[in-house]
Amino acid sequence: VQLQASGGGLVQAGESLKLSCSGSKITLEGWGIGWFRQAPGKEREWVSYRGSRDGTRDYADSVVGRFTISEDVDENTVYLQMNSLKPEDTAVYYCAAVRWPAEYWGQGTQVTVSS
């Protein structure tokens, strides 16, 4: 099983990025999918979550109204659309698939937002 996060880059404040989390040997539709981020010198924090059963979507307060989690079932990919990016959004972003007791993590993708 592999997850791959991609789509990071360097943008200016106010711009947008769309991250992708694709799965290999795992059907993401049946798993809870979370996006997390870790900034330099800080602990990893949760950003967004898509529930596996009812598709519930939830967001950290810091990204509500700016980030949107979505999914393309046919592409087996979960996305994180990030709008109105701020310098404090700068971090390595990770996706994870969770279905207790198993969980899988992808490698991170760097997002850098310049002021």
Topology:
Elements: E1 2-6, E2 9-12, E3 17-24, E4 32-38, E5 45-50, E6 57-59, E7 67-72, E8 77-82, E9 91-99, E10 102-105, E11 109-114
Parallel strand pairs: 2-11
Antiparallel strand pairs: 1-3, 3-8, 4-5, 4-9, 5-6, 7-8, 9-10, 9-11
What does this 3D model show about the protein?
A hairpin with a 6-residue loop joins β4 (32-38) and β5 (45-50). The radius of gyration is 13 Å and the shape is globular. It has strands at 2-6, 9-12, 17-24, 32-38, 45-50, 57-59, 67-72, 77-82, 91-99, 102-105, 109-114. It starts with a strand and ends with a strand. The protein is built from no helices and eleven strands. Helix content is 0%, strand content 56%. The protein is mainly beta and 115 residues long.
Low-confidence stretches: none
* Shape assignment: globular
Instruction: Please tell me the overall pLDDT.
Output: 95
Order of helices and strands: EEEEEEEEEEE
Oligomer: single chain
Q: How many alpha or pi helices?
A: 0
Task: Tell me the total number of β-strands.
Answer: 11
Query: How far is it from the N-terminal to the C-terminal residue, by CA?
Result: 37 Å
* Largest β sheet strand count, sense and barrel closure: 7 strands, mixed
Q: What is the helical fraction, as a range of percent?
A: under 10%
How much is the radius of gyration in Å?
Answer: 13 Å
Structural class: mainly beta
